[in-house]
Amino acid sequence: MGIETAAAALFIVAIGAQAVGEVAGGITATTAAEQEADRLDQQAQLINAEAQEEALRVSKERERFRKKQKLAFLKSGVTLAGSPLLILEETKRESAKEVEAIRRRGRAGLFFGQLQARQTKALGRSKLIGSIVGTAGSTTTSIFTGKTAGIF
User: Fold this and answer.
1) Which of 21-25, 42-46, 55-59, 99-103 has the weakest average pLDDT?
2) Per-residue DSSP letters for the chain?
3) What confidence tens digit (pLDDT) does each residue in 50-68 have?
4) Which bin fits 38, alpha (ψ -120 to 50), beta or left (φ > 0)?
5) What pLDDT was estimated at residue 123?
6) How far is CA 1 from CA 9, 13, 122, in A?
């Protein structure tokens, strides 16, 4: 085995090592992105679940308040017609709006968290693809350089 053959073999090993390193970096980036995306998705689901629980709690509290209002009217001898009825209906409407706003906030948190998770995964995949394409380009350049230098 001559020095030229050894140089060519070493050059090929170097090209291979560079290619493996670039692709490994892309794989690592993809894995990290997938883990981050999973964390973002779990966080989004937790935000939504907490909001739905809060909505249920607020709904129950408002319903108890409305029942207390009704009882207070009845205890004071006021009939549930006219203004008292309007007050009870307004309390019910406002409570429903508040509960729905809490639920919407949870659904929005879920939607945007999952969107961010999908974007993070896509970024990881693009880094992997970029590493593969980059490897092809750098390998081609290295081979060309080797041929120009007379190694091959």
Assistant:
1) 21-25
2) --HHHHHHHHHHHHHHHHHHHHHHHHHHHHHHHHHHHHHHHHHHHHHHHHHHHHHHHHHHHHHHHHHHHHHHHHHTT--SSSHHHHHHHHHHHHHHHHHHHHHHHHHHHHHHHHHHHHHHHHHHHHHHHHHHHHHHHHHHHHHHHHHHTT--
3) 999 999 999 999 999 999 9
4) alpha
5) 95
6) 10, 16, 48
pTM given for the model: 0.72
Domain boundaries, the chain: 3-147
Mean pLDDT (the chain, rounded): 92
* Amino acid at site 46: L
Give the largest Cα separation in the chain, rounded: 112
Here the tokens at position 129 are: 């693809």
- The reported pLDDT for the residue numbered 126 is 94
